[in-house]
Amino acid sequence: MNKLVKLFITSISAITLALVSFTSSFAKVDGEYIVLGSAISLTGKYSSNGVHTQNGYNMAVDRINKMGGVKVGGKSYKFEIIYYDDESNPKRAAQLAERLIKQDGVHYMLGPYSSGLTKAIAPVTEKYKIPMVEANGASRSLFTKGYKYLFAVLSPANQYLEVAIDLAVEKNGGKPVRIAQAFEQDAFSQDVRLGILDAAKRTGSEIIIDDKLPKELNDMAATLAKVKATKPDVLVVSGHTKGALTAIRQISEMKVDVPMLAMTHCDAAKLSKQHGKNSEYALCASQWHKNLSYKDKFFGGGKKYDKDFKKEFGYAPPYQSAESSAALLVFKDAFERANSFDRDKVRDALKDTDMQTFYGNIKFGPGGQNVAKPMILFQVRCKGDTCENKVVAPTKWASDKFYHPIPKWSERG
Amino acid sequence: MGKVKQKDLILYSGLIILGLAAPYLFSAFKVQLTYLCVLIVLAMTWNLQGGEMGYNSFGNILFYGLGMYLTASVQVGMFFPLAEWTESGGEKTFVHTTAQYFQGIGVGLLVAAIVPTIVAGAIGYAILGLRGHYFAICTLGLGIAAGEIAGGIEIIGAGQGFTTPPFPAEIVDPEARGQFFYFLSFLVLVLAFVFVKYIYGSRFRLILNAIRDNEDKAEAMGIQTMKYKIVGWMCSAFFCGLAGGIMGGLIGYIDSTDVAFDGREMGVFMVLMAILGGKGTLWGPIIGATLFHFFKEGLWTFILGWQYVALGVLIVVIVVYFPEGLMGWLREKYPDKFGEVIDEKDRKAQVELK
Q: Which residue range forms the structural domain that includes residue A301?
C-alpha cells in the first residue's frame, strides 16, 4: 500500500503544478486581437442551428477584419473567437462560459444557440460582469431578469407568431378562429406558445388542441390525427429545425388539410429545398429576410449578404446566421464608441447602441432585447419545382400577397 | 474506529488540506473542482448498488434531479410564490436578500436529502424485487419518465426550465459564489466518503456483497435481503439528492431532461466512472471520477465535435482491457499491495487441476 500512496501523492502534486502553471496565460486583448468567447452547439439536438450561428459569426469576423478591423485608441484590432462545443446542453454551456471567462480570460462573450442555453449562460456572464451580445436567445424571460450585461439583437420569442393569429382572424372576416397548436418542450418554443395564448385571448380565439412535443422531435402524428378530426382554422407548430421538418413531412404524408399553417425555423430547416412542393403555403416567422431594405457598409444589403454567404458556405443564409453576423457589427460599433477595452465602458456603449445593419435596426430596450426591429412573416411559394420564401407581412416589405386558405391536398398537383 | 493507521492519517489529512486549499490554488478552476466533487459523490454512492450489491442502477439520476428541483423550489417557495416565479420563466422579478438566499438553500438541501431518500424507499419496495437486467431497464425507465413528467409540471417551469435564484448581489466579490458552492460540495464529498468508508468496515457491506454474490443463498441464510437492498438504495439517494441540489444552484438553470433528469449524461457518467476506477472498491470510483473528469475537461475541447466518439472508444477500452476497472487491474497485478496473500502452492494446484 505504501508504494501506492506514494504514487498517488506524486501524481497529485504533478497535476497541481501543471494546473498552477496553466492558469494565467491568456488575455482579453492579445496583441492586435480582441478575443471573444462563445459556447456553441456543434453536437446534439441543436447542432445544425449551432453551425448556422457559428458560420454567421465567422463570416462577420472575416469581413470586419478584412475591412480594417476595430479601431480603438487610434490602433486597429482584429476579432478572434474562442469556440467550445456545448453539446446543446445547458449544464455544459454554463460550465463552458465559466471556463471561457476564468481560464481563457475572455472579457466579451457572444451568445450560444437557443434560449435555454442563453438562460444558462446569462447568470455566469452577469456574475463576472462580462458583456454578452447574443443573437439566438429569444425567450421573453431572458429580458425580465434585470440582466445588465445581456444584449440581444433579435426580437423576443413571444412576438414570433402573434401576427399570424391576427392574420388568420383578419382572413376570417374579423371573427375569432379555432387554433390547434403543438410546441416542443423547450424554453424558446414555450415562449412562442405564450405569444399565441396572448393573441388568442386578445382576439377571443379558441385553442382546441394544445400539445407538447418531446425534445428529440421526430414524430407528431398523434397531434396531426387530432387536427384531421377537429379541423381547426390555424395549425401552429414550433420546435426548432426538427419541428419544422417533422411537421411538413408528416402533414404531407398524412394529407392533413388545414387552411393555415404557421411555423418557426422554416429557413433554418431549408424547408423549401428539402421538402419542395410539400412545404408550399407554410407561413413562417423570421427575424430577417434577404429582401428587406436595411443596409450597412460591411455587408451591403440583405441580397449581397445572401450572395456572399452562399459563396462562402454553400447554402442560403437562414436568419440565424444573419443575426449572428449582426452581433459582431454591434460589438465593433460599441468598442469604437467606447474607445476603450474597459468592460463597463463597453457595456455602457452597448446600451446606447442605435444603428442600422443589413439585418435590421438595432436599439436595446431596458431588458436588453432589440426593440427597433419587427418580426416578419414569409410564405413558401413554388413556381414549378423551385420553391422560395416570399415575405407577406408586414405590408411595408411584403413582396407577395398572403395566399389563403391553403388548397386541399386532393386539389394540389 | 481507533484503528486508523498512521499512513492513512497522513493521506487523509493531506487530501483534506488539498481539498481546502484547492479553490485558492486553482482559483480559475473552482467550477470544475465543484463538478469533480459532485461526480465523485455520484460515483461513490452508485458503487454501493452497482459495485457492492450487484444491482446496476440507471435510476440514481432520479434522486439527483429530484434533489435539484426540490432545492430550487424550496429556496424560492419559502419567500415568494413559486408559481409566479416560474410562470413564463419569471415574468416578474423577485430578488432574494442575502439571508433569504442562504436560509433557502440550507432548508432546500435538507429537503433535497430527505425526500429522495423516502422516494427511494418507496420505489425500492416496489422494484427491488427485480433482478439483473430487469432491474437495470426498470431504473432506466424511471429516470426518463421523471424527466418527461417534470417537463409537464407548470409550477416548476415545465418546458421553460427553472431559473434558480441568482447569488445575492450584495456579495460583490465575484469569487464568493464559486467558493461557496465548492466548499458545499466538498463538505458533501467528505460526508459521503466518511459514510462509505464506515460502511466498508461494517457488516452491512458484507450483506450487500452476499446479495451480489448469491442472493438466494443469502436469503436462505436468514438475511432479509429486501430490507438491506432498500436501505442501501436509500443511502445512495440521500447523497444523490444533496449533489443534485448543489448542482442546481451552481448551474443556475434547471431544464427537465438536459440538466435535472439527465440520464443520458450524468446518469451514464456515474456508472462509467465507477467502472473505470473499479467497482466494488472504496477508492475505485474516486479515482475513476477524477480521471474521467480530467479526460473530459482536458481532451474534449481539443477534439471538438468528436468528443462523444472518443468517449465511446474510452468505454470500449475500459470494458475490453480493464473489465475490473483500474483498481481491479492493479489488484490483479499487485495483489500483495492490497493485503491479499497468495499461496503459491495452492495456486499451482488449481492450475494443474484445470
A: 29-155+292-363
User: What's the mean pLDDT when you consider all of chain B?
Assistant: 88
Residue B310 belongs to some domain of the structure: no
Alpha helices in A78-131 (DSSP H): 90-102, 115-127
The closest of A98, A381, A56, A175 to B31, measured between CA atoms, is A98
Is-contact B262 B250, C-beta < 8 A?
no
| Total of domains in chain A | 2
* pLDDT, tens digit (0-9, with 9 covering 90-100), for B304-323: 667 778 888 888 888 888 88
Backbone angles phi, psi at A267, to 5 degrees: -75, -35
Residue A177 lies in a domain: yes
Q: Average pLDDT in the B203-232 region?
A: 93
Nearest to A186 by CA among B87, B257, B266: B257
**Residue span of the structural domain in which B202 resides:** 29-266
Q: Is residue A176 part of a domain?
A: yes
* pLDDT of A11: 61
Phi first, then psi, for residue B290 (nearest 5°) are: -65, -50
Whether residues A305 and A323 share a domain: the answer is: yes
Phi-psi region at B59: left, alpha or beta (left = phi > 0; alpha = psi -120 to 50): alpha
Contact list in B for residue A145 (CB cut-off 8 A) is: 90, 93, 163, 166
| CA-wise closest residue to A375 among A356, A355, A396, A402 | A396
- Sort out which chain B residues have CB atoms less than 8 A from A186's CB and list them: 159, 161, 255
For chain B, how many structural domains are there in total? 1
Q: CA-CA-CA-CA torsion for B104, B105, B110, B116, nearest 10 degrees?
A: 110
How confident is residue A24, by pLDDT bands cut at 50, 70 and 90?
A: very low
A192 and A247 fall within a common domain: yes
Q: What ipTM is given for this predicted complex?
A: 0.78
Calculate the alpha carbon distances from B328 to A3, A41, B79, B150, B321 in Å.
17, 37, 50, 39, 11
Looking at the DSSP bridge assignments, the partners of residue A71 are A76
Render pLDDT for B164-208 as a digit per residue (tens, 0 to 9): 888 888 888 888 888 999 999 999 999 999 999 999 999 999 999
Q: How confident is the model at residue A20 (pLDDT cuts 50, 70, 90)?
A: very low
Q: Is residue A404 part of a domain?
A: yes
Look up residue B212 and give its DSSP letter: H
Cβ contact, residue pair B29, A183, below 8 Å: no
- A129/B174 CB distance under 8 A: yes
Q: Which amino acid is it at B136?
A: A
pLDDT of residue A18: 53
Angle between helices B6-25 and A2-22 (to 10 degrees): 10
A46 shares its domain with A119? yes
Where residue A4 falls among pLDDT bands split at 50, 70, 90?
Answer: low
The yes-or-no verdict on residue A248 having pLDDT over 90 is yes
Q: Say yes or no: A202 and A75 in one domain.
A: no
Q: How confident is the model at residue B114 (pLDDT cuts 50, 70, 90)?
A: very high
- pLDDT tens-digit map of B115-169: 999 999 999 999 999 988 899 999 999 998 999 899 888 888 877 788 888 888 8
Residue whose C-alpha cell is 481539498: B19
* Chain B contact for A194 (CB, 8 A cutoff): yes
**pLDDT attached to residue A35:** 93
Q: Is A9 exposed, middle or buried (0-12, 13-18, 19+ CB in 10 A)?
A: middle
Cβ contacts of B341 within 8 Å, gap of 6 or more: none
Which residues are bridge partners to A391 per DSSP?
A378
For B10-36, write each residue's pLDDT tens digit. Answer: 889 999 999 999 999 888 888 889 999
Beta carbons of B337 and A126 less than 8 Å apart = no
Q: Answer whether A18 touches B (CB < 8 Å).
A: no
pLDDT at position B263 is 85
In contact, A60 and A330? CB cutoff 8 Å? no
For the entire predicted model, the pTM comes to: 0.83
